[in-house]
Design goal:
The protein has 204 residues and is an alpha/beta fold. It has 8 helices and 7 strands; from the N terminus they run αααβαβαβαβαβαββ. Helices cover 39% and strands 22% of the residues.
Length: 204
């Protein structure tokens, strides 16, 4: 048993179907968050007593399930994705779990969809194409309430960010995004070395 196996032995998914979903995603080469990252999302949703969450890049709803497990029962999570097929799968998934009222699917550009909402969010989660991360931060940060969180996945980007010069657009975009978040005056930020790296910024 290695370190990850040991940690995972304590982290049970909040819904039984999630193990099957993870296996199917792996089989089909569909990227989803790791179990440790999922547990973090559940944790932050709980400590924020989250009632309004916005996901930028929801896929078929796997990460949203982790959020729902920690958020208030009256909470709502807006799932945005470019793929209608992914969002239809997410809707079906939540319906089968008798949780259809907690997910609001929105198809299209996550940045443009977010701009349609005037109220603040308790959490905004970024997991879209990496070259959009800085633009996503510009769009998302004004929408996060004081005491709320912005969370971004894949901050290590498979370890490529550790090189000073990479020539890779996605890697350099992640590096730029990370610097921008840590230079944001009204943010308290931390990078958590779990899975592919998770950045969490709390608005002061």
């Amino acid at each position: 048993m290695n370190e990850n196996d040991y940690i995972h032995s304590f982290y049970k998914p909040p819904f039984l179907v999630m193990e099957t979903l993870a296996e199917e995603a792996k089989k089909n080469g569909f990227p989803i968050i790791g179990v440790q990252t999922g547990r973090l999302l559940q944790h932050y949703a709980s400590i924020a007593n989250a009632r309004r969450i916005f996901e930028m890049g929801s896929g078929f709803g796997y990460s949203a399930l982790w959020f729902v497990a920690g958020m208030a029962q009256t909470g709502r999570i807006i799932c945005s994705d470019f793929s209608t097929e992914n969002l239809q799968k997410a809707e079906k998934l939540f319906a089968n779990l008798h949780l259809p009222q907690q997910v609001i699917p929105r198809c299209g550009n996550a940045l443009e969809i977010l701009e349609l909402y005037d109220k603040f969010f308790d959490i905004v989660f970024i997991d879209i194409d990496k070259h959009w991360y800085s633009d996503a931060f510009d769009a998302a940060w004004p929408k996060v309430r004081k005491g709320g969180f912005l969370i971004a996945d894949n901050i290590f980007w498979k370890g490529t960010v550790f090189a000073s010069a990479t020539g890779n657009e996605s890697t350099e975009a992640i590096q730029l995004f990370t610097r921008r978040v840590f230079n944001q005056p009204d943010a308290e930020s931390v990078i958590l070395p779990v899975d592919d790296g998770v950045l969490v910024a709390m608005k002061k």
